[in-house]
Amino acid sequence: MGQSHGALLQYQNDAVHLNMIENKMCNDHRSSRPAIKLGAFVRFLAAHDKGVAAVEFAMIAPILLILMIGTLEMGTAYTIDRRVSTIASSVADLVARETEVMDDTKLYVMTDKIARALLAPYNFAPTKITVISIQADNSVPPTTTIDWSKTYTAGDLAVSDTTGLLAKGRNITTPAGLMTEGSYMIAVEVTYAFTPLIFGKNSAMRTVGTDAVTLGVYTMKDRFYYSPRNTQGCVHHVTSANCSSPL
Predict the structure, then answer these.
(1) If phi over 0 gives left and psi between -120 and 50 gives alpha, with beta otherwise, what is residue 182?
(2) Which residue, among 87, 86, 80, 153, has the nearest Cα to 123 in the 3D structure?
(3) Which terminal residue of the chain has fewer beta carbons within 10 Å of its beta carbon, N or C?
């Protein structure tokens, strides 16, 4: 009888112990359930990469867009800069070829038509063209002064400088050795205010030294010199009254 009672107690103790083990295993299983779910989710994502291309494109698209627009801007700026040089060279060459005194209308038509044709299809409004007749005196080396000048802004009729740096009789600097004593020279200067598509609008004005610089607007400039080739003296004048030694 005593042995049976002891076996019963042992059986009960074993049952309690097994129940505790089962409870612990259940608790461990419940606590590990989030980690199992997270691992399964990670494996799910790793196995499905269909959205990777879209994510990568979204990351690099802004950079590619900036590079593309920058390339277009640089190409446009370079093209306009080359055309500014071509306009200055062509106008100076044709004015220097003239064989008779030109009036305002003839000079305007020549300058305007050449500039518009060479600059197309770009905006002509920011263009300024200045035609200058330069005279050298008989000193050695010669002193060069302005005999006359005409400025065309955005295709408007010419304006003569009467008091500024390009007024008649003002000294003007030319490249060393360009002019000989008593000679004349035609100079054409073309400027173009280029405004980029990006960072070029509504920009503030600042001053650097003595130069006023508009942020976002870049001035392209070139000047060409040609000597009269078909006639002598200062035949290339808007009116004969401006010519100090007309033919």
Answers:
(1) left
(2) 80
(3) N
How far is Cα of residue 85 from the mean position of the Cα atoms in its chain? 17
| The two three-digit tokens of residue 235, written as one number | 């035949």
Contact 218, 197 (CB under 8 A): no
Q: Residue 125 and residue 80: Cα distance in Å, rounded?
A: 13
- Over residues 9-64, the pLDDT tens digits come to 555 555 555 566 556 555 555 555 565 666 666 666 666 666 667 777 788 888 88
Tell which residue, 43, 125, 38, 48, has the closest CA to residue 80: 125
Q: How many Å apart are CA 73 and CA 60, to the nearest integer?
A: 20
Cα separations in angstroms, 201 against 25, 44, 97, 154: 71, 50, 41, 20
Q: Contact, 210 vs 74, CB < 8 A? A: no
Cα 144 to its chain centre, rounded Å, is: 36
- Examine the pLDDT at 8 and tell me if it is beyond 70: no
